[in-house]
Amino acid sequence: MALTSAGPAARVMAVFALHATLVASLFLRLPEVQLRLGLSEAVYGLVLLAMPIGVVAGSMLVPALVERWGPRRVLTVALPLATALQIPAAFAVSAPTLGAALLAFGFVFGIVNVTENIEADRVEVASGARIMNRCHGWWALGFLAASLAATGLVAVGLAPVWQFAGHAALMAAATPLVLNGLPESRARTATGPARRFALPGRGTIRIGLFALASLVIEGIMRNWSVIHLRDTLGAAEWVATLALPAVVATQTLGRFLGDGWVIRHGVTRTLRWTSVLLLAGMVGFALAGHVVPALVSCLLIGVGIAVVQPQGFAAAARDGARPAAESVAAFATFGTLVGFMSPPLFGGVVEALGFPVAFALLVPLPVLAILFANRLEP
């Protein structure tokens, strides 16, 4: 279907794909910035804390922005701006300047993340079709494409700043094409009062008990899997970067198949057997002594985390005790606190115990997910 004739669902899926390129582009080049600045794992982990602080701050402000401007206008500004804010990271000259760059990037990245999920839920309500899993499938597909492109750019030796600048130019051109045809959407009705800030509540924590394993492991794999393959298993730089595409490849497949799994097997059974695969993947990754079994374990991890966040956002949006925009923002805030703060803390564990032991300590988390899978039941 031509972009000019695409419907709201297709345009929202395109936004998810574009948004995913941000985190893939930046995360795959940050290890190079770490090496250039000579940052240890512990210091690098502390620097990474700046990003979740920015994401949380941006996420909590989204309901007010969406109420005033609408999702389309917020995304039109925030998506190109977030892309351009990758560039300062390439010019960082110290740990504090890198932290400041990641703080600014995280703030706008968080605004886009929550807003696109709010819009996806609104399109579901208006159309009566399930699209949340597919939206996150397109996010994973965008991440996969961008991570493979970044891997190629690493292999040919292109400096991060040129990648970030080119990315910003492409995003500035693509965003209006995708969003100009998106109609204004209506919010879900809610029984509870609106709040000034979208802080996690009881419903969010209940969903988060299940999602904890996926949020922690996905964040750590994005930030540390490449470094583990490079520094522990001795992989070449471009080979090590394949760890992230390996996770995202099966995560993408799982998200496109996720709606069918849920319809056929139900929410609880689907989430439990994918959590078993996540458990197997983490055991394999922790024990791997060679690049090949480590990459195979990454494939299992991708399937294991595939449908957790889409189902978490869908469950949050269905919570009628507060406006859907707030519930989605609250789950995003919880996910950010867990998913983005876990990697920096993990860096301290790596510094003390090494990568194999640090990854082994994550193995019990999928067991928790298996036990709490019914928390996302409609």
TrEMBL record:
The record, for Pfam families, names: MFS_1
| GO molecular function annotation | transmembrane transporter activity
TM spans, by residue? 12-30, 42-62, 98-115, 136-158, 164-182, 203-226, 238-258, 270-288, 328-346, 352-373
| InterPro entries linked to this entry | MFS, MFS_trans_sf, MFS_Transporter
Q: Which UniProt keywords apply?
A: Membrane, Transmembrane, Transmembrane helix
Example GO CC term: the record gives:
membrane
Provide the topology term for how it sits in the membrane: Multi-pass membrane protein
SUPFAM superfamilies (alphabetical): MFS general substrate transporter
**Chief localisation class:** membrane
Per UniProt, subcellular location reads as: Membrane
Domain of life from the UniProt record:
Bacteria
Q: What is this protein called?
A: Wenxma_19, whole genome shotgun sequence
Q: What organism, scientifically named, is this protein from?
A: Wenxinia marina DSM 24838
